[in-house]
Amino acid sequence: MDTKHRILDEALTLFSEKGYANVFVGDIAERVGIKAPSLYKHYKSKQAIFEAIIEEMNERFVKEAGALNISGTDPTTDAGIYKGISEEQMIELGKNLFLYYLHDDYTKRFRKMLTIEQFHDKELAAVYMKNYYDDPLSYQGMLFGLMVASGVLSTDNVQVMTLHFYAPIYLLLTVCDRDPSREEECLKLLDAHLRQFDKIYGRSIG
Amino acid sequence: MDTKHRILDEALTLFSEKGYANVFVGDIAERVGIKAPSLYKHYKSKQAIFEAIIEEMNERFVKEAGALNISGTDPTTDAGIYKGISEEQMIELGKNLFLYYLHDDYTKRFRKMLTIEQFHDKELAAVYMKNYYDDPLSYQGMLFGLMVASGVLSTDNVQVMTLHFYAPIYLLLTVCDRDPSREEECLKLLDAHLRQFDKIYGRSIG
DNA sequence: GTCTATAAGAAGATAGAC
DNA sequence: GTCTATCTTCTTATAGAC
Fold it and tell me: Integer distance in angstroms from CA B31 to C1' D5?
């Protein structure tokens, strides 16, 4: 990793731990192994480093879905996969989604930084909402809609069903972000949530 | 309201909008209508103002439950109330809980401040978790447990049922905090959530 | 591209008059 | 208790040598 990119990486770590205003250019430089003035050969200001992080993240979020073993952009394809899914596979999938978000170092740090800085900048609040509310709900919603159509799931309100699937995952994720020692407890509750979700909306009741 | 308390009030407003580090002592003083040095006659430092806010909040949270028309500390009493509750009353209650959290000016500002500052200080993360995860889940859990025992609700996993009740409320609250213009949309979804919850766990399916 | 030295300015806090 | 004036410290950023 070149210096220019190491600066972004170390800055993201620090911003996610302390928040933008509490991180000094010297702190970033120190972690990179250079002095503060050298850093200005790579980025013209502290703000420019912050903006480069946001931009890099925007690129990453496009690629991200691939890591989840779903197309992420083509729900018709994904629904085909989900069509014949078993309860255990469904639970496994929910867990993997959760664990990916929880452990992927980059998304984890970025999520924490967004949480801290979201009220600082209206644009950031919008990014937060898009990534952690609108996009998951609309994508999962489309997927679940197709699953309802094919009889895998059953409900008369797909939007609420999607909310019932996603909201507990989101809440448990915020708990783990704040206190990683509660991860095991959260994973157990996540498992119980997914099993209950399947029981409520799965084909057995459908 | 005396000057000492007005300082806390204006500081909380600013902290909740910009975060601690981005608020200057002069900003607080200006809103109170005094100059920065005068402020130091009331609090010995900026940090002391912050700590006084936290302390004041701790006192408020004890009294809060009363405003919700539940005892808040005695679930046996509350369950007695909930025992004969109708679907419409249940939905109304969930909505009132949501609207109280959403609109009460003090809790709103405090919640936003905690959201921003939670990673600065481990103690704050603990306060956040207690107020918005553990306490709501454990209290609602006790209440729902009693309602299951009395046959108003039905489930074999009270903890997950409570999560299914609370997680969507929490998620929709975070959406409204970030973008108040989406309040109407969220209230509609909240209504649908509560109706669906009643359908799933209510006595009709028992 | 990295360094040392340093400018420029911001922000918390104090001194002392009123 | 409030003010003006000021101190001190910290932080971003630049200048210019290597």
Answer: 22
